[in-house]
Amino acid sequence: MTIEDIIEKVNEIFVDEFEVNGDVISPELNLKDTLGLDSLDYVDLVVSIEANFGVKLGEADFVGIATFQDFYNLIEAKIQNNN
């Protein structure tokens, strides 16, 4: 899976499952500020990412995640580590 595939799928999850306007998603923007998700939404996000990408995410994985690009890179690294 390429980074482009990951970005497309993650953005699709944000739009479809969290009703985020796709126009506000940009790699350099702050993930938390842009999405405005609460703690329960983050749990749902983790579950959705794990189900869609076959990876496990823990609290420690989110340390240092600020932008959408950071999040995409995290998922890419998790996928590569599973293979």
Structure in a nutshell:
With 83 residues, the chain is mainly α.
CATH superfamily: ACP-like
Total strands: the figure is: 0
Oligomer: single chain
Give the low-pLDDT segments: none
Q: How many domain modules? A: 1
Largest sheet: none
Cα distance, first to last residue? 11 Å
Q: What's the CATH topology name?
A: Non-ribosomal Peptide Synthetase Peptidyl Carrier Protein, Chain A
Order of helices and strands: HHHH
Number of helices: 4
The CATH class, by name, is: Mainly Alpha
Mean pLDDT: 92
Net shape: globular
Return the structural class. mainly alpha
CATH architecture: Orthogonal Bundle
Q: How much helical structure, as a percent, in the residues?
A: 55-70%
Approximately how much beta-strand content do the residues carry? Answer: under 5%
Annotation keywords:
single chain, 83 residues, mainly alpha, Non-ribosomal Peptide Synthetase Peptidyl Carrier Protein, Chain A, 4 helices, 61% helix, 0% strand, globular, acyl carrier activity, lipid metabolism
Question: Explain this structure to me?
Answer:
- This protein has 83 residues and is an all-alpha fold.
- The longest helix has 16 residues, at 3-18.
- α1 (3-18) crosses α3 (39-53).
- The chain has four helices and no strands.
- The mean pLDDT is 92.
- It has helices spanning 3-18, 31-35, 39-53, 68-82.
- The chain starts with a helix and ends with a helix.
- The protein has one domain: Non-ribosomal Peptide Synthetase Peptidyl Carrier Protein, Chain A (Orthogonal Bundle), CATH 1.10.1200.10.
- Belongs to the acyl carrier protein (ACP) family.
